[in-house]
Amino acid sequence: MRKNYLMWFVILTFLIIGCRNDNFNANETSNNQQALKFRVVPKSSIPGVINELQAKTANFIVSLKASSASGKSETIFGEVKTDFVVETTNNGSIYYNFPVVPADSTPDIYNLEVKVSDGTYTSKIVRYSPSEDWLTNDPNDFLFFSGNISTYTLDGTQQTSMSMVNGSGGCSGNPGGGGGPSGPGGTNGPGNTGGGGGGNWPNTGDTGGPTGGTGGNGCGVYQLSHYTYSQNPVTGERYITGEVWINLCGETQHVFYGGSNKGNCNGVGSGTVSIPLLNDPCTKIKAKFADTKFKAKYDNINKPDVFGLDHEKGTFERYPPKNSGLQPSFVDIENKIGTTDMSLPDDKSGVSGLMHSHQDEDANGNHPIKIFSPTDVRTFINILMPQASSYTGSYMNAYSIVTTSGGNYMLQYTKATWPGSINYETKEKWQTWYKDEYRKLINDEKLTQANVEKIFTQFIKEVTKIDGLEVYKVTETSSAKLEYNGADQPVKSTPCP
Amino acid sequence: MKKIILLIIVNIFLSCNAQEYPLRTYGIEFPKDSYLKDTTNELSQYEGVWKATWSNKTIFITLKKIKYYKDFLDSRAYYADILIGKFKVSDNNGNILFDNTNIIDDKAKIKGTNFGKSDNKYSLFYIDRDLCGITGDIIINFIDSAKTKLQWIYSKDTNWIDTDCFYYDKPASERPDPLPYNIIFTKQ
């Protein structure tokens, strides 16, 4: 008997250790039982589900009920994201949960859930309409969600509606069915949400399966990055509210525990809420520096002997074609021998990232400005962004880094649409302004790095005027968004969390 | 008569609004449509044709003072007296290698910024759209009391070269090198 227990312990331990990824933070795993209750699966492993969705939707576009600004109900469209699928098992049924990205701005959160039971597929849209209090207090904690949870068929017919307060509630027409308010009294993690709620997450015994494998674009598979937490206001104890998964492009997906799987309402069965966060530069920067290949290339051009060279050095990152299963690659570049010219690659396919150094003094005794040049910005917009869109699915995955002895900087873009190509005339106008302003700094004997940053952020804001173009000051462990704050104010620096 | 008085008043009003600053003004943001004026005619001394020879090439550069409207920022566009430069470069056989002397003043490839705060060195920058966007900085200053010798220091910036550039992938010897780096020009 004891042998059996020992064997099961060893097997379970092996599964737990083997199935989590390397980024698992040992300091944050004091209570991660619930983290083991789902797995992220590649869409290639669930062809039946994907085919079902393709057949039942307009090429993964679905109609969503939403509240307009005037409070009236309206229909908007949403895209079902298939590159991040959460699988759970609940009462003998398997649930696949997909994030749905609405085309229009709305406070509502949408998921598409496919239930597989006895070979039958049942799909529904789950809509979370949060209360203002919940949004204000802790929008990351779906275990204590307040607001309304509704489910719809794929043709937009409402099936159920459930009003929630602090994670408990009942079906429409049966407001008491869910039991009393649960309150954040549990000290043993989110499983203890108080009595009467029924069906609180987690409630399955699944120990999880292999993670990752969710590819689909050039950004590689999603990996567990870290957990999100909330704090019990009474005991002060932290409990896990969800997980953040991230791919090589820094695209992140939140999987929140909760979703209130009230079986008696025929409500949400998966017990998870998936929310894609596509345009968060801070997370993207963090993800880049967590990539050991990127980090090695960055380190290679971020050292005094490189800044002491009489020419620039750099690397560009090439993303593979979508669905190729290949990893991005890095190619080193250097000045053409005997010139001050850096050559862009002949084949630019997939080239979405670029990093290069600005040395302290060039062969002619010139002191390059220790931040991006207008040509660097134009290269980012004209070449890196379109390639990022083609090869990773988003303009927001392009990046450009410049390393200097005065600090390192990274360009990011946060909008879904391309601002358009920068023609030569515009570039020349940018250069004229830029050269004139930096020369004025030199003539005035005020060429400090703080003033270099001020001129560049002014350049971004008032000269390029490109909405969504942002510059970050980066190190391998921290980053901060820099913004022009007027001629008489220092540059506004907003640290990334 | 009334019209004349009105015109005078409008003229005075406009004159009062267009503030003037001496050329060696530093550290301020110039108000819209103000005028950074060469009140002491420092720039005029540089005007004329200058010649230098280097690497089997001869350059003639014409420096000229113009009133230039710096309209990069709409809300803070202002006028400034600057030097512009147009040049012609030929080889030992008299073949013209580079010639932009016929370009209009506002489009000159060499434009001035100002003097250094504590020296008499005047800075200019060079942007050449015909040579794949070569850019660089130039510092000039007189080295003789007669002001017929001009020290010229040019620093070329690093430039990203793309496949549409006519010298993409060519060796250094086949790339354009239109300006001398450190040389003395003589007034013609």
From TrEMBL, chain B:
Signal peptide range: 1-18
Keywords of the record: Signal
Domain of life from the UniProt record: Bacteria
Annotated ranges, domain DUF6705: 1-188
Record-linked InterPro entries: DUF6705
PROSITE patterns: PROKAR_LIPOPROTEIN
Pfam families with a match to the protein in the record: DUF6705
Protein's UniProt name: DUF6705 domain-containing protein
Organism: Epilithonimonas zeae
